[in-house]
Amino acid sequence: MENELITANSRELATELTSYDTKMLGVFEYLGLPTDNILVKVDERRKVFKNIEDVLELLSSDTLANSIYISKFLSAVSAGLFDAALNYLWDETVSQLRFRVSQYDIQYFYDLAVTSDKRNKLSTEEDLVKIDDSELIQGAKEIGLISDIGYRLLDNIKFMRNWASAAHPNQNELTGLQLIEWLETCIREVISLPLSNLTIQIGKLLRNIKANILDEAEAQTISNFFCELTSEKANSLCNGFFGIYCRPDTTSDTKRNIKLLLPELWDLVDEDIKWNCGIKFSKFQINNDQAEAKLAREFLQIVDAESYLPESVRSAELKIELEHLYNAHNASMNNFYLEPPYAKQVQRLIGSNGVPTQINAYYTMVIIDAYLTNGNGRCWGAEDIYNELIDNFTQVQFMLAITSFTHDKIASKLQFPLCLNQYKSLLTKAEDSVTAPKLLDFINMIKDFSQPLYRLKEDAKIMQQVEHLKKIIK
Asked: In whole angstroms, what is the distance from residue 436 CA to residue 401 CA?
């Protein structure tokens, strides 16, 4: 039966699969088990096998030989279990992402992907299993292993895997064309995607500063490369430098290299990233990580940036609780149970004192992320808190909230109906509260946008207005 399923004509394939269904359903009936809506129709399975060769041609023979979950994916398809097939497809994607991360600078990945205290427990390739899928694909995008478009597409597949696969009880119907399209997406955007020149150069830079001793001339030559970085890549590299510098086991030569390079990078870094370095200093103090706190202070001193230290420890405490809330909201399971306690703690810390300026951007982002929901349902235990916090937004916070689609995670959420409706409700809240004419005009501009709102970020005119708003509303 060599390659029989692939080479057989449609009638033979249908006959074999129908025979399999008849036998298995007969067993189910004999055992007293349900038989309705268990196996996907044969016609849908044929669509997968009809297209599978074209899709798998995108992979090298070596990659194919190690793609265990693709074999399981096809086994589940042939059995008519599309929900299980989707689960295996996602497992293969995660497996390949972990492999690609392990071939890059894994410490750099952890510094960018994990912002909570969990970062302290991650150091080796084996620790990759400890991070959530959301952190994995976010971190992979940050270091350039997947593209912005790939991130959005994978986020959609992850959403379907969470709510329409065998990972959770559900009654969603999947089609053969959906499965084959998702498989092709995972192969194009993850498994076979070549690294960009920028990503390769950053990888070489990270290896260079750890393995060699740079002099000032070499550092100046390297820093000329910083001008090629996008704003996001500059922010990521700064976070990476901070993580490397603040590890007690980092060599003195590596720290010296960072001292030479950081001043040239610092001016390209966004303000909220600079403030975040100061907040991390306070977190080290709160956790009694004295060695790390000392190194974090040194890092800021390199660029005369001690003004970015928080006004009070409350900033760091609030940041910690916001991280807990963010992680709870984005958990694969039980987020509706986990969110409310952290939301209440955030509400308590803010009280009547408002939000410290240095974490304004992060606070707004976390609250909007939670308010937009996970796309599947509202967290009733925390919804009133989110509404109250948003109702008390300052004009700056409303501006940050309305323009939050500039973040890939928020933009991706706007492809899901529930999240989209929540964003539209946010626009209504803002209209009732803000007074700045330019901001009100921008809200109307969004309402008149003719394309799907998840594409707002792709519109040059919209993004031009976003930058203008950031300059005039402070």
From this structure: 15
Q: How confident is the model at residue 440 (pLDDT cuts 50, 70, 90)?
A: very high
Q: Name the residue among 280, 286, 214 with its Cα closest to residue 247.
A: 280
Contact 465, 442 (CB under 8 A): yes
For residue 189, give the amino acid letter: E
What's the confidence (pLDDT) of residue 398? 96
Find the Cα–Cα–Cα–Cα dihedral 101, 104, 106, 108, rounded to 10°: -110
User: pTM of the predicted model, to two decimals?
Assistant: 0.75
Residue 292 has pLDDT above 90, yes or no: yes
Model confidence at 460, pLDDT cuts 50, 70, 90, reads: very high
How large is the average pLDDT for residues 123-144? Answer: 90
**Res 352: pLDDT:** 72
Residue 176 near residue 47 (C-beta atoms within 8 A): yes
